[in-house]
């Protein structure tokens, strides 16, 4: 019998419920989002993780605010940017029968989610994102990245190919390694338990 190898995976905690020290604003200055009862809530400006990663499993929990007067892109809008360049949309899309590439769970402007896995506003939801970074040789992409996304334990993207970046990130091109960005789109979306594991 061959010897079984055990691989150690380090979990990098980006938000532990108390401190925003592992985040910065786009200009590198300290983050000013509200932190209360183990939760951080969007107040002003996108925030970017100081840590970067390539191939990874990323875990994010978020809660939509209750905004019954709002609709479409104005209802609980935020985003989780993988590598700072691929946006997974955060939005109150509960009840939408056929989500498109701008609804919650979409890789914004690229891929609609396979199904609507959203919970109602004021319920905690999860993203588990598995990303394989693009491969580069001599500064050029020789193999595109791929991503699988689970929302609330349901597969909404299955090994999709990432052929380009999405708008609004920290870079206008794909990268081999990048940060996590949480978007401010003017709505008080809340986040907790944010971490990643390098794969």
| CATH classification, class level | Mainly Beta
Instruction: Give the CA-CA distance, first to last residue.
Output: 26 Å
Task: Give the full name of the CATH homologous superfamily.
Answer: Exo-inulinase, domain 1
Give a count of the beta strands, DSSP E runs of length 2 or more: 15
**How many structural domains are formed by the residues?**
1
Mean pLDDT across the residues is 95
Q: What is the annotated CATH architecture? A: Sandwich
Q: Within the CATH hierarchy, at the fold level, what is the topology?
A: Jelly Rolls
Question: What global shape is seen?
Answer: globular
Number of helices: 0
Structural class: mainly beta
Approximately how much helix is present in the residues? under 10%
Largest sheet: 8 strands, antiparallel
Q: Roughly what fraction of the amino acids lie in strands?
A: 35-45%
H/E order of the elements? EEEEEEEEEEEEEEE
The Rg value, from CA coordinates, equals 17 Å
Give start-end ranges of low-pLDDT stretches: none
Describe what this molecule looks like in 3D.
This protein is mostly beta strands. The chain has a single domain, classed as Exo-inulinase, domain 1 (Jelly Rolls). Helices cover 0% and strands 39% of the residues. It has no helices and 15 strands. The strands form three sheets. Strands 1, 3, 4, 6, 9, 12, 13 and 15 form an eight-stranded antiparallel sheet that branches. It has a five-stranded antiparallel sheet with strand order 2-5-14-7-8, with no helix packed on it. The chain is globular and about 55 Å long. It starts with 10 loop residues before the first strand and ends with a strand.
């Amino acid at each position: 019998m061959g010897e079984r190898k055990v691989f150690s995976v380090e979990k990098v905690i980006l938000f532990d419920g108390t401190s925003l020290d592992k985040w910065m604003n786009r200009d590198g200055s300290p983050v000013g989002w509200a932190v209360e009862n183990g939760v951080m809530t969007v107040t002003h400006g996108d925030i970017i993780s100081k840590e970067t990663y390539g191939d990874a499993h990323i875990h994010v929990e978020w809660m939509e605010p209750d905004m019954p007067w709002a609709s479409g892109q104005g209802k609980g809008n935020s985003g989780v940017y993988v590598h700072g360049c691929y946006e997974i949309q955060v939005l109150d899309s509960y009840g939408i029968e056929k989500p498109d590439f701008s609804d919650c769970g979409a890789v914004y402007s690229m891929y609609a989610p396979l199904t609507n896995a959203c919970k109602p506003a004021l319920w905690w939801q999860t993203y588990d994102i598995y990303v394989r970074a693009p491969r580069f040789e001599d500064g050029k992409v020789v193999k595109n990245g791929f991503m699988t996304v689970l929302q609330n334990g349901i597969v909404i993207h299955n090994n999709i190919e990432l052929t380009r970046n999405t708008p609004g990130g920290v870079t206008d091109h794909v990268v081999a390694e990048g940060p996590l960005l949480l978007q401010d789109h003017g709505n008080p979306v809340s986040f907790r338990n944010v971490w990643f594991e390098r794969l």
